[in-house]
């Protein structure tokens, strides 16, 4: 536990990516395999489901610290992060030496997972005893584990780089072994170091290849158009369909197994030969592509009835093949993979469909097609080098997404609440409203778009102009106007405004505008397709 707490603190303090990678390499090459497995679990963004709620933890903190509950509550609101509040408020750890040398795995099993089966009083005793034993960094880390809110300041790419260095394997091999379902135990950790895995999980997908956005005119950057494979940029859910060992597995880009959410796709996958993996986009589709809001109705469902499948039919538009006849095709050129994919899908029928290619004579003609994107129900155009292999992550150069310009509106800031992690003591999560007659109606929440200087300046303004408080949320004077950008808009019965915005973010702070210049709800609804 102490070794991982030290790594966590070192990663939090280091600023350079190479230094973060070096810190993880030092840890992985010296750690116990079981501890290393749990460390990878947390570093790669996986979490333990929350075991104890914040209200209960604050009550225990008040008892353990001897402070009144109101002061603990006020301190938490000021600090913004409960784990940090616990680490700061509690008295120093006991001075006498401790013989507890348990590693991260034992700590997780004994002091976190074991709490699930304990009575509330026993659970409180175990938690407060652990607080007394740990130093400040350890308390912070332990409390984060209890709340299921542990976030480490490293990306999946950096974790893969560190493990590649520690194991001596190429990063794509490590990335593949980290995909899908795995248990954080010693065998898993040792398997990362093995020359080859003897018991590969048949369900395991490949790491997804992602595109970079085009900044500016692609004609000035990407050379001859004939070197690129052109496709539509679909607005759906990216997915890999894995057909192995007479079983079918459907994975989202977020590594969620969504086979049961789309049973018709799993059924249709029987049209594919064994040992096949394809990459594509799940879309709501009835004669033509439907708005993303329709697809959203299917997401998160564990069971889908035949009636609901008929109400919101879906289709998997497939644009790449990664494995055929058990052979990994990712190193082959896209043009070769496309030919193989067309052969594979020739006997298939909907809901499995080949994603069509776009034909354009020159960049001007392609730009005209891109301008039709919203009318076609797509986000823009994909440009993929015909000679590109299927890479891991988001390398710059082989794949580009040339999206249409976002929609925008001017809205008024009305509510704000603190962010998370490093921004837990700053107001960074905002709710925006637009006028509807005499009332202000919430239309979007946004968490990104401002730089650090603007966030700090807006935070000071929010604190000075607070009208009311609702727990961590503050309402402010409705005078600040912001331009919001978003990818799409759809009707919504779940929102008071009657609309839902797709991926809203702050485009700029319109200090040149007043609240009377904001768009009205009628103007927002006029954007509906």
Descriptive key words:
about 525 residues; D-amino Acid Aminotransferase, Chain A, domain 1; 3 domains; 7-stranded antiparallel beta sheet; 20 strands; alpha+beta; 7-stranded mixed beta sheet; OB fold (Dihydrolipoamide Acetyltransferase, E2P); DNA ligase i, domain 1
Explain what the structure shows.
This protein is of the alpha+beta class and 529 residues long. It has three domains: 2-147, DNA ligase i, domain 1, CATH 1.10.3260.10; 212-398, D-amino Acid Aminotransferase, Chain A, domain 1 (2-Layer Sandwich); 407-525, Nucleic acid-binding proteins (OB fold (Dihydrolipoamide Acetyltransferase, E2P), Beta Barrel). It has 20 helices and 20 strands. The strands form four sheets. Strands 3, 4, 5, 6, 7, 8 and 9 form a seven-stranded mixed β-sheet that branches. Strands 12, 13, 14, 15, 16, 17 and 20 form a seven-stranded antiparallel β-sheet that branches. Helix 4 packs across helix 5 (69-79) and helix 10 (156-167) packs across helix 11 (171-177). The longest helix is centred in the N-terminal third of the chain and has 14 residues, at 17-30. The termini are far apart. The model has no long low-confidence stretch (mean pLDDT 91).
In CATH, the architecture of the largest domain is 2-Layer Sandwich
Return the structural class. Answer: alpha+beta
Overall number of strands = 20
Number of domains: 3
Give the count of helical stretches. Answer: 20
Report the β-strand fraction as a percent range: 15-25%
CATH domain fold name of the largest domain: D-amino Acid Aminotransferase, Chain A, domain 1
- Helical residue percent band: 25-40%
User: Low-confidence parts, pLDDT < 50 over ≥5 residues?
Assistant: none
Taking Cα atoms only, what radius of gyration do you get, to the nearest Å? Answer: 26 Å
Q: Compute the average pLDDT.
A: 91
Main sheet makeup: 7 strands, mixed
